[in-house]
Design goal:
The chain is an alpha+beta fold and about 190 residues long. It has 4 helices and 7 strands.
């Protein structure tokens, strides 16, 4: 029996058939392995695509372009998706621009949508009125309009986190002041 098998294998026409059979089995196993790897990569790609198109909304006090001593409370969407139905709660409430304290335990604001990469100045406050205060923030948003599923982010921040002490680019009011100085200098000369 073994001799018959050896004779069949060593026959010139059957060697090629045997090689094709072995190659077919190897290709079948490689195809199954490749299918499995491709399926895992497709799942990971869909999760990654879903994660990269998510909004991420925060608020912070940042130096204002209006004055070196003013701070803006800014709401920012640093994510890659539009945030809808944004609700902001800051405690204690920020004082008014003239420094008088606001009534209530919290400051609450709502915004209907915030596109990715955009920011919205919510309130101006003078740095001297909040320089040593730590604020608690709670920001929540939805991925779709009218959705009951919401993301919630809670954290603390202070004025020093975003205060640059006047080291901002010149705003329109600075340009107007410079033009006024030039005009007066030209009139004298």
């Amino acid at each position: 029996m073994m001799e018959n098998w050896i004779d069949w294998v060593t026959s010139p026409g059957n060697v090629l058939t045997l090689a094709q059979l072995v190659a077919t089995v190897i290709i079948a196993f490689a195809t199954i392995a490749l299918w499995r790897v491709t399926r895992v990569l497709a799942d990971e790609t869909s999760v990654l695509a879903k994660m990269t198109s998510q909004p991420f909304v925060v608020c912070a006090l940042e130096s204002s372009e209006v004055s070196a001593h003013a701070l803006n409370l800014k709401l920012k969407n640093s994510g890659n998706g539009t945030a809808f139905d944004i609700k902001l709660k800051v405690s204690p409430p920020l004082p008014k621009a003239d420094g008088t304290p606001k009534d209530g335990e919290n400051m609450e604001r709502s915004v209907s949508l915030l596109p990715p990469g955009s920011e919205l100045a919510m309130q101006v406050v003078m740095g001297r009125d909040v320089h040593d205060t730590v604020f608690s923030a709670e920001v929540s948003w939805a991925h779709l309009p009218g959705s009951s599923e919401r993301e919630v982010l809670k954290y603390t921040f202070s004025a020093l986190d975003g205060f640059r002490g006047g080291a901002v680019s010149k705003g329109p009011h600075h340009i107007a002041e410079e033009l006024e100085k030039i005009r007066k200098h030209v009139e004298k000369g």
